[in-house]
Amino acid sequence: MICEKDFSYSESDDSWPDFYVVYTYKLFSCPSCSKITIICYSETLCTEEDKQERYYRLERGDYGRKVIFMPPRKEHPAIPESIAEITYQAQLNLAASPRASFILCRAVLEEICHHFKIPVKAEGKSYPASLAFRLNQLFEQEKMPEDLREIIQGVRQLGNEGAHSEHLTFTKQVNMEEADNLLKIVNYVIEKLFVDKYEQQKAEKVLEELKIKILKSE
After folding, report:
1. What is the pTM of this model?
2. How far apart are CA 158 and CA 106, in angstroms?
3. 142-162 confidence digits (pLDDT tens)
4. Are 102 and 161 in contact (CB under 8 A)?
């Protein structure tokens, strides 16, 4: 991306006059589609030496990074809109809150269950079914490839940890890169479920049309 504009300002706390935070907002444009992304970088500085070392700190990645705005990724037409939207929200939260991104990855699994009309309540029960139970129904009804079972349950377990663990403890354990890795796994599941099936059906249709046209005399 190309940085079109940037703006910086600093903030300090009266109780800690030697410390201050520099916030830098950068507006990037995509050279291929011209869409805009805005990112805020933050650095905590203390001494004059920090100022002199600032360039090298930036090179090492010693700064906070928060995505303020980014355009939604163009999803494959086979992916249901509701699932694509939750995935986009998980992507938006990667830098600001890896924990929120973990929770949203779990929400993607819930939305997949909704898409395939897996009941929220187990048959004959008055209480809601667990997500683990609903996901197992996907496999039992052969709406989910069996080779995804372990991956799906792993995403669910990690999402549960994000939803139910103590916030500060979880945020110390998980960073943006790890949340991004989980999101990549979720995207892999989505592609296997919707995109691969769509492309296979498309290929079968084209192949059948070719056979009718070219092999019709046989």
Report:
1. 0.68
2. 8
3. 899 999 999 999 999 999 998
4. yes
